[in-house]
Amino acid sequence: MVLTHAFFLWTVRDRIARGDPDFTVYYTAGRILRLGEAQHLYDPTTQRIVQRQFTSDSDLRRGPLPYLHPPFEALLFLPLTFLSYPKAFVLWNLLNLGLLVLIALVMRSFLMYLRQVSVFDLILICLAFFPIFANFHQGQDAILLLLPVALGVRALNRNAEFVAGCWIGLGLFKYHLILPLILIIAFWKGRRFLLGAFSVAGIATLLSIALVGLRDACHYPGYIWSVISQPGFGRIPFRQLPNLLGLMTGWPYLENIGRPLHLLVLACSAGLLILLASLRRPIDQGESLKIGLAAAVIAALLVGYSTNTYDLSLLVLSLALVAEYGWLDLRNQARQRFSLILPAIPLLISPLWFFLWMKWARINLIALFLLWWLYAIRKEVLRRCNSRVLDVSVAVNSVRN
């Protein structure tokens, strides 16, 4: 699968060189900052002028690729603008490869099961995962998001709630994914976690205001909504979104229903978050923290408004957490282990992703496997909780007798 991904990247190298990947938006944002035009970071005219300097006419989109992320993230890409676009793209992916090494080391530091696997093999496993490949293909920042989330999960595993909140708060450059995750974990872990997340969010907000000014910062939400509401410009076809929105609306004649269907998606998303929040008792008791966090990541991806294929790189963490739980806690329970792992197996098969992406254009079907996996994890959490309650009840009765 790694060789398949590498071969595909080689075949699209010309499109990468002409500026088709999403990396164009980050390179554009960095160049705008370098030119001292931060106040025009979200101006379509400025974006078009800058992109014409290093891209060729694309047959894949209309107009410039718009920069949608918060202003503070653009600072990370400013140094890359001292290189030509192709060289900057290669360097960014090399940095992503380095981030994967760091992520592997972080996960090995608190997951005993992964210590039996070499770092090199872990990197190969990650590179064989289609969403990771999609991140490299597009020059995206999903791997950059995976690092603070992994560090946050490690901190939670050590009962350092405030530190965990700070780490996960660093991922707010993809707020549509991180905010649902923060809500779930905050309900489980309380104020210290929330305080850490809000502290980092406050610093990021002040930095963004300092970059673009208070006026443009206040106009940012309206700008985002106007862009993602325009098909072919900023809005990805719903059938290509592996989340609840894509699953429920990405079908012929449904995309144009509009507000009523979107309200239904919103209600289902809220229901899913409430369902996860209801696991507070077993999670709070520390019995199923690891697979609970795996479920929280899956839920955040499902309810995120604009979850894309490369965003599912976060599932690397869910896979690692479920593997750890299956190895440590389900060693002699083959049936439970199989039911917990089975829904994730299709996600590991790259040909299935390629078929849904290039043949059917139905990536939204991936949401079915995510829902199945989420159901299996929640069922296991409740099973373990009920089993412990039963054991405690038996022990109490024995003492009384």
Q: Residue ranges: pLDDT <50 for 5 or more in a row?
A: 389-396
Estimated radius of gyration: 22 Å
Secondary structure class reads mainly alpha
Number of helices: 21
How many domains? The number is 1
The total count of strands amounts to: 0
**Overall residue-averaged pLDDT value:** 88
Biggest beta sheet summary: none
Give the overall shape, derived from the CA principal axes.
globular
Straight-line distance between termini = 60 Å
- H/E series, N to C? HHHHHHHHHHHHHHHHHHHHH
Proportion of beta-strand residues: under 5%
Helix content: 55-70%
Explain what this protein looks like in three dimensions.
The chain has 401 residues and is mainly α. The chain has one domain. The chain contains 21 helices and no strands. The longest helix has 35 residues, at 366-400. The N and C termini lie far apart (60 Å).
Name the features:
401 residues; mainly alpha; 21 helices; globular
What's the SSE blueprint?
Layout: H1 2-11, H2 13-17, H3 23-34, H4 44-52, H5 71-77, H6 85-110, H7 119-127, H8 130-138, H9 142-157, H10 161-169, H11 175-189, H12 191-212, H13 214-228, H14 244-249, H15 259-277, H16 280-284, H17 289-303, H18 315-328, H19 334-341, H20 350-359, H21 366-400
Helix pairs in contact: 3-4, 3-5, 6-7, 6-9, 9-10, 10-12, 11-12, 11-15, 11-17, 12-13, 15-17, 17-18, 17-21, 18-19, 19-21
